[in-house]
UniProtKB/TrEMBL annotation:
Residues 93-250 form the N-acetyltransferase domain. Gene3D superfamilies: 3.40.630.30. InterPro entries: Acyl_CoA_acyltransferase, GNAT_dom. This is GNAT superfamily N-acetyltransferase. The keyword Amino-acid biosynthesis does not apply. PROSITE patterns: GNAT (PS51186). One of its GO terms (molecular function) is acyltransferase activity, transferring groups other than amino-acyl groups.
Amino acid sequence: MEPTRVRELTGVREVAAASGGDAMVGWAAQGLRGGVRAWALDGAVAVASPGLNRRDRLTVCGGAPEAAELVRRVLPELGPSYRLLGERPLVTEVVRRLPGAEILGTFEWMETAGSVPPPPAPDGAVGWLAPGADGEVTRLLAEASPSAWAVPGLPGIRRWAGLRDAAGTLVATAADAWSAPAVGFVAGVATAPALRGRGLGEAVCRFVFGALAAEHGRVALMVDTGNAGAIRVYERLGMRIRPVAAATPA
């Protein structure tokens, strides 16, 4: 029997239809701009996104046998820099079917699961920062989140939000980074260590979530599995967890 042909998807509506509207796949597609490509095979979808969230990513969904076969067929067109991304059980099974593939890490994808609280009424304390605030954001991240994936100046980071104290010092921040047309993406969330536990990070996230939900419809982010405090905040803001994994495909 002749093997099923891989179908390249050339429009965002095709990607959404083939993936059942999967938010992670929709985010990875990035509007099919910037060299992003997508394919489908027997219900599985793979999206190759160069430089997405600082990595060349091959995001997959669908059944494990079909996804593994799709990855096997498209890899020759991509090169060795691409890493698999997808729900943890799926990536685990895909890796098992690909000789030489290996799990690199596990973490949590979180996405909105219903209505997002609106941003707070403007009061001057929280809002989008001017481009000239990049230095302040850099200093806050260096102190509060030195391993943050989003930092000022990276391609794909559109803008930063922040909250200032009474003296005007930036004490909490979050970025609109690597957002896609139908999925707003949040990164670089940080609060000054001395002020944690006061709801400042939650206030900034509430503002950013509301703004991105109004613009994109859905909101998503990634968080370390062990960051229970942040996960609780994001759940209060209407997000649900999808455990994910990253892997080398070969």
